[in-house]
Design the sequence.
C-alpha cells in the first residue's frame, strides 16, 4: 500500500497513522464488479440464450473503470471513505445491467444510432470517471472552492437558466424545459447547476451563519430570524419558483429548495428555518397548484392514479403494475415485462428493478443509497472546517433528497417529478454530474480522515469536532 | 453544526424508511391486486408468448394463433370471424376475452388440469408449451344458414341436436369481426370498437343466450303440454275459442291476432287452436288448468329462473309472478312477464322432438391436446323429463299441423315433415312485435330442433322467422346431418 507512512504530515503526528482502508475499498469494488457481471450474464442468458463476446468487453471496461478510480483515489485521496466508491460502483453497475436488459427487449430511448443505450451509458460513466479524476486533481483542498463561491453561483444560475431561454425545440422533452439538445446529445445542465449551487450555499452560509442564526423574537417556541435576514431564503425560494414556471420542472425546483433549507438549518442550528422553509414551500405549492395546469395534473394523478390510468396517470399506474407484479422476489432478470413501463430506462428504472429483482432487490438498492448518504453525512460530521462540513452535508443530502423524491414519485408516495435516479438511471448529465459530486465527497472525506497536521485547528472548531477525528 | 447534522442524518433514515415501507405496501400487500388488475397486461402478454389452442368446427380451425414478429408473439385470427363471432367471442389485449375464448380459456392456454400431463411432458421434452384445442359441436352449414337468415335484422338462431343437446347453430346478429378486436394494434382496435358502438353493436351481447324476450305464442306449446299431461285433454278435445275474451276480474278484452274469430262456433279442438294460434282459447285453457299446472310445466322445461352454462353462460328464463287469473291468461299466451332466451325456446322444441326428454345443451364436443388426441369428450346429459312419450307424440302431431295447415306454413320443406310453432310477441311498447319460430324436423325422426328469434321484426313469426328456420333445417339435413 502507498500507506499513511509516506505521508509527511502523518509522520509528524506522533500517534500511529490511521488505516487508509484502501484495501477494503478494492475488495468491495471487486465485489461490486462481480455482482454486476453475474447480473449481466443472467440477463444475456435469459434474454438471448447465450453469453456474448460483448460481455467480455463490457466486463473488462467496467472493471477497468473502477480499478482506475481506485488507483486514482489511492494516489490523490488515500484517506477517503472506502465505502463511497463501492456504493456508486454497484449502483451504476445495476443501472447498466438494467439498461442493457431493456435494450434487449427492444425499447430504446433513441439516444444512439445503434439502438443500444447501455454502451452509451458506459461511455458516459467513463466521461464521469474523467470528471472524477479531474476534480480530485484540480481540487487538492476542498477549502479552495469557497474562494470561487460567487463564480460558481453565477455558473450555476446560468446553467439553470439556459434551457429556459432556449427555444422549446432544443430544450423541451415531455413538457419540461430542462435540456440542451445539440447534435444528438441531450444535456441536463440542471444536474451540474445543482453542484455549483451547493458549493455556493456552503460558502455563503458558512460566511453568514452567525448573522442568520440571530433570533429577533420567539414565537410559539420558535426563534424566528430578523426580517431582513430572510433575504437569502426568499431568493432561493423565488429561484425555485422561477425554475418551476419557466422550465416546468417540479423536481429540480423541489430539489434545490429542499437542499437550501436543510443547509441553512445545519449552518444556523435554528429549526425555525425549517419551519419558514416549510411555510414557503406550502405557499409555493399552493400557488403552483392553483396557477399551473401541469402541476395540478401531477397532483391529481398522484392522489388517484387509477382514475387517470389512460391519461396523466398512465406512467405511474404502469410503474405500480410493474412493482406489484414483481412482488417479493421479482420475476428475475429478463423474466418480467418492465419494458411496458414508459421511459423505463430513465425515470422509471426503479420500477424495472423492482419488477425483476423484487422487493428485496429494490430495498437493497435503497439501502445502498442510504449507506452512500450516511457515509457522506458522516464525512460532514468528522471534517474539521465549517465549509467542508456544510458542503459534504449539502452534497450528501442532495443525493438523499433526490433519491427520496424520485423513488417516492415512482412508487406513488409523492407526485411524479422529472428527476433521475442517481447513478442508476439512463442519462449522461446525471451520471457525469453525480460522479463529480462523489469526487467532492471523496476529497472532503480524505481531508476528514487524514491525520491532523500540526498546528492544531482553532479551539473554537475543536469544541465542534467529535472524538472520532483521530480515531481508527 | 454537528447537532443539526445528526438530526438530518436521522431524518434521511426516516425518509428512506418511508420509501421502504411504501415499497413493501406495493410489492407485498397490494401485489395481488396490482398483478390481477385488468389494465395490467403482463399476464395477458405472457399468454401471447405461447401458442394458444385453436377453436375447431368440423375439423376446421375457426380461431387460431399465428406467429408474428412483434412483441406479442402470437396473433389470434378468426377464419370466418363474423360468422362465428357469437360463439368464439374475441381475445383482446385491450378488451379482454369473451365467448369460448373466455369460457375455455384454461384449455386454450394450456393450464387446464386435463392438460396437466401434457404440460409436464412438454417441459421434459423441451417442446414449447402450447394450449389445447376446443372442438365445437356446431354444424357449419346450419350456422351459415342461420347467420345468412338473420342478415340485416337483430335476432338469434339456436339449433340443437334434440337427442344429445349438441348445439348445431348459435347465431346472433348484428355480428362483428373478432379479428379487429383481437389485433395487436391498440389504435385500430379502439377505432373499431368505437365504430361498433356508433352502430349500436355490442360485441358482448349474444341475442341467443344473454338476452330474454317475451315468448308470445310459442309458449302455447307449454300450455298445450300442461293440458295433455293433465290427462283431461287430447288434441281432439274441444275447448272454448271465442272471438273475444274478457280476462277475469278485469275489463281488459283479449282478442285474437288481427281480431279474427278462431272458429265460427266459438269452440274448436285443441289441435286446431294451436294450429291457428288462438289466443282466446289458450288464455282460457291456461286459466282452466290453473297456475300450478302451467308453472310446473314451464319449470320442467327449464323456464325456472336458473341460468346454466354451455359453457357460455345462458341467462335464466322465467314466466314471472302471476298475481291473478287475468295475469295467468296473459301468461298462457306468452305475454305478461314471460321472458325466454332463444336458447330456452330451442330447448322446448328439442324436448318435444326427443320424446319428452330435455337434453342439456352443450357447445364443446371435445378437448384435444395440441397433437389432436382427444383428452375429454362431452357426454350428452339429461337435464329433465318434463313430458311423457305420449304427450310428446301428441304435441308433435299438433306442431306438425301448425306447419302443415297453420301459421307455420312457411317452414314447410318438401319431402320433410316439419313440426313447429310460431310466435308474435307484443313488446309492450310502440316498437314492432318480436317474431319467433320454434320447430324440429323430420317430425318422425327429429335430427334438428331450432328456435329463430327476430327482434322487432314487425311481421309475424310465420312470415319472418319460419323461413329462416326452414333454411337452417334444410342446411343441416342436406349437409348429411
Sequence:
Amino acid at each position: 500500500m502507498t500507506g499513511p507512512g509516506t505521508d509527511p504530515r502523518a509522520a509528524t503526528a506522533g500517534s500511529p497513522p490511521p488505516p487508509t482502508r484502501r484495501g477494503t475499498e478494492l475488495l468491495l469494488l471487486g465485489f461490486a464488479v462481480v455482482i454486476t457481471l453475474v447480473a449481466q450474464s443472467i440477463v444475456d442468458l435469459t434474454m438471448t440464450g447465450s453469453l456474448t463476446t460483448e460481455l467480455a468487453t463490457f466486463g473488462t471496461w467496467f472493471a477497468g473503470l473502477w480499478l482506475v478510480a481506485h488507483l486514482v483515489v489511492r494516489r490523490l485521496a488515500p484517506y477517503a471513505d472506502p465505502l463511497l466508491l463501492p456504493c456508486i460502483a454497484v449502483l451504476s453497475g445495476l443501472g447498466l445491467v438494467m439498461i442493457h436488459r431493456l435494450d434487449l427487449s427492444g425499447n430504446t430511448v433513441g439516444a444512439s444510432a445503434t439502438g443500444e443505450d447501455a454502451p452509451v451509458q458506459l461511455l458516459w460513466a467513463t466521461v464521469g470517471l474523467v470528471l472524477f479524476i479531474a476534480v480530485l486533481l484540480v481540487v487538492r483542498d476542498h477549502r479552495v472552492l469557497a474562494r470561487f463561491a460567487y463564480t460558481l453561483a453565477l455558473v450555476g444560475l446560468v446553467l439553470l437558466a439556459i434551457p429556459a431561454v432556449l427555444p422549446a425545440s432544443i430544450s423541451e422533452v415531455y413538457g419540461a424545459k430542462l435540456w440542451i439538445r445539440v447534435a444528438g446529445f441531450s444535456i441536463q445542465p440542471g444536474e451540474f447547476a445543482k453542484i455549483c449551487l451547493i458549493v455556493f450555499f456552503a460558502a455563503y452560509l458558512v460566511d453568514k451563519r452567525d448573522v442568520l442564526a440571530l433570533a429577533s423574537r420567539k414565537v410559539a417556541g420558535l426563534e424566528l430570524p430578523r426580517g431582513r435576514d430572510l433575504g437569502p431564503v426568499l431568493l432561493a425560494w423565488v429561484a425555485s419558483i422561477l425554475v418551476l414556471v419557466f422550465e416546468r420542472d417540479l423536481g429540480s425546483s423541489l430539489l434545490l429548495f429542499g437542499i437550501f433549507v436543510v443547509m441553512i438549518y445545519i449552518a444556523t442550528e435554528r429549526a425555525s428555518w425549517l419551519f419558514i422553509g416549510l411555510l414557503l414551500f406550502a405557499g409555493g405549492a399552493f400557488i403552483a397548484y392553483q396557477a399551473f395546469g401541469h402541476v395540478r395534473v401531477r397532483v391529481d394523478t398522484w392522489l388517484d392514479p387509477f382514475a387517470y390510468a389512460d391519461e396523466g396517470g398512465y406512467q405511474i399506474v404502469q410503474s405500480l403494475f410493474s412493482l406489484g407484479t414483481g412482488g417479493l422476489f421479482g420475476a428475475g432478470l429478463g423474466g418480467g415485462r418492465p419494458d411496458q413501463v414508459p421511459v423505463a430506462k430513465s425515470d422509471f428504472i426503479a420500477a424495472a428493478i423492482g419488477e425483476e429483482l423484487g422487493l428485496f432487490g429494490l430495498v437493497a438498492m435503497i439501502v445502498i443509497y442510504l449507506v452512500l448518504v450516511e457515509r457522506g453525512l458522516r464525512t460532514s460530521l468528522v471534517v474539521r472546517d465549517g465549509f467542508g462540513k456544510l458542503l459534504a452535508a449539502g452534497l450528501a443530502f442532495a443525493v438523499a433528497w433526490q433519491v427520496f423524491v424520485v423513488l417516492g414519485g415512482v412508487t406513488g408516495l409523492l407526485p411524479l417529478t422529472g428527476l433521475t435516479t442517481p447513478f442508476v438511471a439512463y442519462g449522461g448529465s446525471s451520471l457525469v454530474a453525480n460522479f463529480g459530486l462523489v469526487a467532492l465527497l471523496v476529497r472532503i472525506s480524505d481531508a476528514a480522515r487524514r491525520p491532523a497536521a500540526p498546528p492544531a485547528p482553532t479551539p473554537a472548531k475543536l469544541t465542534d469536532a467529535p472524538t472520532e477525528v483521530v480515531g481508527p | 453544526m454537528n447537532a443539526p447534522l445528526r438530526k438530518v442524518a436521522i431524518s434521511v433514515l426516516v425518509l428512506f424508511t418511508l420509501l421502504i415501507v411504501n415499497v413493501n405496501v406495493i410489492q407485498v400487500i397490494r401485489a395481488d391486486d396490482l398483478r390481477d388488475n385488468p389494465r395490467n397486461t403482463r399476464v395477458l402478454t405472457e399468454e401471447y408468448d405461447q401458442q394458444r389452442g385453436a377453436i375447431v368446427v368440423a375439423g376446421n380451425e375457426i380461431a387460431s394463433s399465428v406467429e408474428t414478429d412483434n412483441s406479442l408473439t402470437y396473433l389470434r385470427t378468426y377464419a370466418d370471424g363474423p360468422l362465428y363471432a357469437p360463439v368464439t367471442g374475441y381475445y383482446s389485449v385491450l378488451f379482454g376475452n369473451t365467448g369460448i375464448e373466455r369460457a375455455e380459456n384454461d384449455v386454450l392456454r394450456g393450464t387446464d388440469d386435463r392438460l396437466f400431463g401434457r404440460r409436464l411432458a412438454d417441459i421434459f421434452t423441451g417442446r414449447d408449451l402450447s394450449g389445447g384445442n376446443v372442438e365445437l359441436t356446431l354444424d357449419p352449414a346450419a350456422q351459415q344458414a342461420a347467420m345468412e337468415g338473420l342478415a340485416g335484422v337483430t335476432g338469434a338462431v339456436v339449433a340443437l341436436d334434440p337427442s344429445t343437446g349438441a348445439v348445431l347453430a348459435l347465431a346472433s346478429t348484428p355480428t362483428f369481426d373478432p379479428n379487429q378486436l383481437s389485433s395487436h394494434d391498440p389504435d385500430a382496435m379502439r377505432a373499431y370498437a368505437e365504430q361498433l358502438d356508433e352502430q349500436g353493436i355490442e360485441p358482448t351481447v349474444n341475442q341467443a343466450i344473454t338476452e330474454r324476450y317475451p315468448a308470445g305464442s310459442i309458449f302455447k306449446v307449454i300450455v298445450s303440454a300442461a293440458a295433455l299431461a293433465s290427462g283431461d285433454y287430447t288434441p281432439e278435445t274441444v275447448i272454448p275459442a271465442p272471438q273475444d275474451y274478457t280476462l277475469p276480474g278485469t275489463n281488459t278484452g283479449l282478442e285474437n291476432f288481427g281480431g279474427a274469430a278462431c272458429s265460427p262456433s266459438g269452440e274448436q279442438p285443441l289441435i286446431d287452436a294451436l294450429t291457428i294460434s288462438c289466443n282466446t282459447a289458450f288464455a282460457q285453457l291456461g286459466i282452466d288448468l290453473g297456475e300450478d299446472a302451467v308453472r310446473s310445466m314451464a319449470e320442467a322445461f327449464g323456464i325456472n329462473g336458473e341460468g346454466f352454462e354451455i359453457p357460455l353462460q345462458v341467462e335464466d328464463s322465467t314466466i314471472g309472478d302471476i298475481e291473478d287469473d287475468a295475469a295467468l291468461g296473459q301468461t298462457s299466451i306468452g305475454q305478461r312477464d314471460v321472458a325466454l332466451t332463444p336458447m330456452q325456446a330451442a330447448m322446448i322444441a328439442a324436448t318435444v322432438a326427443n320424446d319428452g326428454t330435455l337434453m342439456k345443451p352443450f357447445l364443446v364436443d371435445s378437448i384435444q391436446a395440441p397433437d389432436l388426441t382427444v383428452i375429454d369428450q362431452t357426454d350428452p346429459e339429461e337435464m329433465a323429463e318434463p313430458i311423457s312419450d305420449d304427450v310428446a307424440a301428441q304435441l308433435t302431431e299438433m306442431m306438425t299441423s301448425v306447419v302443415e295447415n297453420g301459421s307455420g306454413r312457411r317452414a314447410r320443406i318438401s319431402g320433410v315433415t316439419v313440426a313447429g310453432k310460431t310466435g308474435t310477441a307484443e313488446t309492450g311498447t310502440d316498437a314492432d312485435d318480436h317474431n319467433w319460430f320454434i320447430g324440429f324436423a323430420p317430425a318422425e325422426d327429429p335430427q334438428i330442433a331450432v328456435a329463430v328469434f327476430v327482434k322487432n321484426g314487425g311481421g309475424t313469426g310465420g312470415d319472418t322467422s319460419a323461413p329462416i328456420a326452414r333454411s337452417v333445417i334444410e342446411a343441416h339435413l342436406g349437409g348429411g346431418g
Summary: Chain B touches chain A through 35 residues (CB under 8 Å).
